[in-house]
Amino acid sequence: MSLWRMTVMFAMIIGATRGFGLAVAKTYVAELAMVANFGLDPGQAKKATVELGNDAIAVKFDVTQKDNIEAAAMRALHLISEA
């Protein structure tokens, strides 16, 4: 039984391509949220997204490029709205 219940239905997770980030993404998907999987390597992001299932999308994103933050978030929202 879950000790918490999520009310947010959409999460943008940076680094959800493997390790801890992927584990967090799996938790969100298990709680019925849509997940935008932000990663630098598009191939790895797509691989992780396939593992997460239909409730996830992959978005290429480099956290070192501050100018790309808003564009990546808008791209994720656009892709989620089409899903």
From TrEMBL:
Q: What InterPro entries does the annotation carry?
A: NAD(P)-bd_dom_sf, SDR_fam
Q: Which UniProt keywords apply?
A: Oxidoreductase
Would the keyword Lipid biosynthesis turn up in this protein's UniProt record?
Answer: no
Q: Enumerate the GO terms in the molecular function aspect.
A: oxidoreductase activity
Organism domain of life: Bacteria
Q: Is Oxidoreductase found in the keyword set?
A: yes
Pfam families assigned: adh_short
Annotated family: Belongs to the short-chain dehydrogenases/reductases (SDR) family.
PANTHER family documented for this protein: 5-KETO-D-GLUCONATE 5-REDUCTASE, OXIDOREDUCTASE
Q: What name goes with this protein? A: Oxidoreductase
Q: From which source organism is this entry?
A: Rhizobium rhizogenes NBRC 13257
